[in-house]
Specification:
It contains 10 helices and no strands.
């Protein structure tokens, strides 16, 4: 498959397509997992349509696919966890727009390519990676990277820790453009791929047994518009 893509599109375009397909696979798998978790929680079924509709909200930020796949995986999991842990839906205004630990890690990494990081900057980078790792399972982050994080943290002075915290606080105050989900119920076939057939039927019935769009109450229903076509990976 890789050779075919390279022959048709060239090496650079083929790599971009491969990364896009890998990202879609990660997003779909993580959304399915989050729906499974929601279905196992008391009063969690009502979150399943919102989670199912998060695909566009979790699409990779510019530049993220150039990093290792675990970075995007952590990004998706953190956004989905915000939904799973929310006391009510839709999420409060601005909650979805807060940067993830993976995004902050990416920003610091990109900055380090422009100018060498100070010791406090390196500590901020290590702290962002530790934050990102909190959304990954053991073994999903490279051992060498984790060892480097611990080495930087272990050598930091109190002053460097204070400065690193200031840098991270500033980064996490940024607002990120992210698409709000347009909530739809998942089809029965999708539920059956996640739950047993009996459980899937129960959830499908509980959600109303239709695939009709459910707009969050705080948002007005969209008005009819002229046909628009949009293409995006």
């Amino acid at each position: 498959m890789d050779n075919i893509l390279q022959q048709v599109f060239g090496e650079g375009e083929a790599l971009a397509i491969e990364r896009a397909f890998r990202a879609m696979e990660i997003a779909e798998a993580e959304i399915d997992h989050a729906m499974r978790v929601a279905g196992q929680r008391e009063q969690g079924v009502e979150k399943i349509p919102y989670i199912f509709s998060m695909f566009m909200a979790v699409k990779p930020p510019n530049g993220m696919l150039e990093f290792a796949p675990f970075v995007y995986k952590a990004h998706v999991r953190e956004l989905l966890r915000r939904v799973l842990d929310a006391k009510r839906l839709p999420l409060p205004k601005g909650q979805l727009q807060k940067p993830t630990c993976a995004e902050v890690s990416m920003w610091v990494s990109e900055a380090s390519q422009v100018t060498p990081l100070s010791r406090s900057g390196a500590l901020a980078y290590a702290s962002a990676i530790r934050c990102m790792a909190s959304h990954l399972e053991a073994g999903e982050i490279p051992v060498a990277l984790w060892d480097a994080v611990q080495e930087i943290e272990g050598a930091a002075t109190d002053w460097e820790k204070e400065k690193a915290k200031e840098l991270l606080d500033y980064a996490f105050r940024r607002s990120v453009l992210r698409e709000e989900p347009v909530v739809n119920n998942p089809p029965l076939m999708r539920l059956e791929s996640i739950f047993s057939k009996t459980k899937a039927a129960q959830i499908f019935e509980q959600l109303g047994g239709t695939g009709k769009s459910q707009q969050p109450q705080s948002q007005p229903a969209p008005q009819p518009v002229q046909l628009q076509l949009s293409f995006a990976l």
